[in-house]
Design a protein that fits this description.
This protein is α+β, with helices and mostly antiparallel strands. Helix content is 44%, strand content 18%.
Length: 559
């Protein structure tokens, strides 16, 4: 009598051979079963280190279905060790089974004693495949539920401690050598006019060194680091949960990605705060204020060229541009008077600034433009510009750091995926199931923490590289404009002039009143060196102090 032809299919989720589930163990059992049932094995298919969550990444499984479709070996059955080896995604299991049966091929799960050719077989397959899928997903659900519960209890969720803290027996403790910087960030951000970029620059230039952590962060402060500190409620004694969420990719089966959330729960922590809740809240209000945009209400062709650059001579805050509109008795407008004025912010001593003078914009603008004109018309300027253009941006150290971080991310993601594959192998009938389950859950937590840490650091390094490159490009553009300043400046619109001056000038200080010699300007700080009185400078002063505050060689200035 002619033997019935069959295929055998084996699979393990990882390269690690698990007792009872190894490829060799599966093959041995399936061959013995085929011999006992007097079946002829027409082909063997095996996927090693492949997850059962879908069939897309299982080439041998797909080849087997293709051979069934073509009728290559005229098989009647596919033998698998257990249903979980055939697949753990219920939809894939049932659709694959239906595909096989459309070509007269049934499935036999040897260890589970299931035969889809029998009436009860397909029902059992439906139930068990659904259970297998639920079990795999349940580990991830329980992992996140456990993390949320820890957050509700005010506990740290694992991973590296945030800057300013260290871990002691799983609890956050203040690291005083780091906490000083955290306090400075909140204090300076709330009580000065500095934004996150200016604050990062202030820290780096004021001698603060970012301590090297066990997670290998850089020793310089970036705007992204400052934003992370300001936005993190951990520093006022609270714990946030779900700032990043794993979400399903639309149109993909079993594919997920991490998405930053704008709305997430925050709980009171059991750790000690570094700053008060009141100070933290003031920082959030300023963050919100700085993210808004002002709507222009008056002359659409006019721009307040030095708004946000010009400094109040009393409190030092940035002055703003405004308009005094003159109208005729009939209400028609006949003239606009544009001026700069102080915002009257709180000074360091707690009193509000009382400088009320309104400076005519044309007067201040002309004084600044005269300084620029004098600078660009000096003989040394053309030589300095050419040297500047020949300088190159050196981001090698950051590029190497970024490559290393991306390598770490791939390693951690790969390790997490391999752990997920191990979860794929869990058998509820195993007497050590609970212990294995808890072990996987704990390790999965650690992987998520480390992946999140690396992603944040990658974002920080990428930002630093972008800033350096943009500064290089901006510098070259600015020097090109300066070189042709006398030709093109007067042809620029107000909007173009404002963009140019904002990219070139750091700040402009004025005297409270016009000086006896007619001087108005006290100092001008530049974002890039210029030639003035034969020297390359970044700041010029007219307040009886040394005229040149900072002297540098233009060709050696770092970008």
């Amino acid at each position: 009598m002619k033997k019935v032809n069959c295929y055998i299919y084996t699979r393990v989720s990882t390269a690690m051979q698990v007792d009872g589930y190894s490829l060799d163990a599966q093959r041995e059992k399936l061959r013995k079963y085929a011999d006992f049932q007097e079946m002829h094995i027409a082909g063997e298919y095996s996927d090693e280190g492949k997850s059962g969550k879908n069939i897309a990444n299982r080439p041998q499984f797909q080849q087997m279905l293709q051979d069934i479709e073509t009728g290559k070996d005229d098989v009647s059955f596919v033998l698998v060790f257990k249903l979980s080896r055939f697949g753990r995604n219920a939809a894939d299991v049932l659709s694959s089974l239906q595909f096989m049966q459309d070509f007269g091929v049934n499935l036999i799960c040897v260890e589970d004693s299931i035969d889809s050719s029998r009436d009860s077989g397909k029902l059992m397959i439906s139930v068990l495949s659904a259970v297998a899928e639920i079990e795999r997903e349940n580990i991830l659900v329980q992992t996140m539920a456990g993390r949320k519960q820890k957050a509700k209890e005010g506990k740290w969720n694992g991973g590296f401690a945030p800057y300013g803290y260290y871990l002691e027996k799983g609890e956050l403790k203040i690291a005083e050598d780091e906490a000083e910087v955290i306090r400075v960030i909140f204090d300076q951000y709330v009580h000065t006019t500095m934004g996150v970029h200016a604050l990062a620059k202030y820290l780096n230039q004021s001698g603060y060194i970012k301590k090297q952590r066990q997670n290998g962060t850089l020793n310089m402060f970036s705007a992204s680091f400052v934003k992370f500190v300001l936005d993190n409620p951990i520093y006022c004694g609270r714990v946030a949960f779900g700032r990043r969420k794993t979400e399903k990719i639309n149109g993909e089966r079993n594919q997920y990605h991490i998405v930053k959330q704008t709305d997430y729960p925050v709980y009171d922590g059991i750790h000690e705060a570094i700053v008060s809740k009141e100070l933290w809240q003031l920082a959030q209000e300023k963050r919100k204020e700085n993210s808004g945009k002002w709507e222009k209400k008056y002359n659409l062709d006019h721009e307040h060229l030095l708004s946000g650059i010009l400094c109040c001579p009393v409190c030092g805050a940035k002055m703003y541009g405004n308009v005094n509109r003159k109208k005729k008795p009939d209400g028609t407008i006949y003239k606009d008077h544009f001026y700069y004025a102080c915002k009257h912010r709180m000074k360091v001593d707690g009193h509000r600034c009382d400088y009320h003078r309104q400076w005519n914009q044309d007067v201040i603008n002309a004084a600044v433009e005269e300084v620029i004109h004098k600078a660009v018309n000096q003989p040394q300027f053309e030589t300095a510009v050419k040297e500047r253009f020949n300088s190159e941006v050196d981001t090698n150290e950051l590029e190497n750091k970024l490559a290393d971080l991306k390598k770490q991310l791939r390693q951690q993601t790969g390790a997490k995926d391999r752990l997920s594959l191990q979860a794929d192998q869990l058998d509820v009938s195993d007497r050590h199931y609970e212990r294995k389950y808890r072990d996987i859950e704990k390790r999965m937590n650690a992987f998520y923490d480390e992946i999140e840490r690396i992603e944040e650091e990658i974002e920080s390094v990428q930002h630093q590289i972008t800033v350096i490159r943009e500064q290089k490009i901006t510098a070259e553009n600015i020097y090109e404009f300066l070189y042709l300043y006398d030709i093109i400046y007067q042809k620029m619109t107000d909007a173009e002039k404002k963009r140019f001056l904002n990219s070139f000038l750091e700040s402009v200080e004025i005297f409270p009143e016009k000086q006896p010699d007619g001087k108005i300007l006290k100092s001008i700080s530049f974002r890039f060196p210029i030639i003035y009185d034969g020297e390359s400078v970044t700041k010029i002063r007219w307040d009886k102090k040394s005229q040149v505050e900072t002297v540098v060689l233009m060709s050696r200035v770092q970008d």
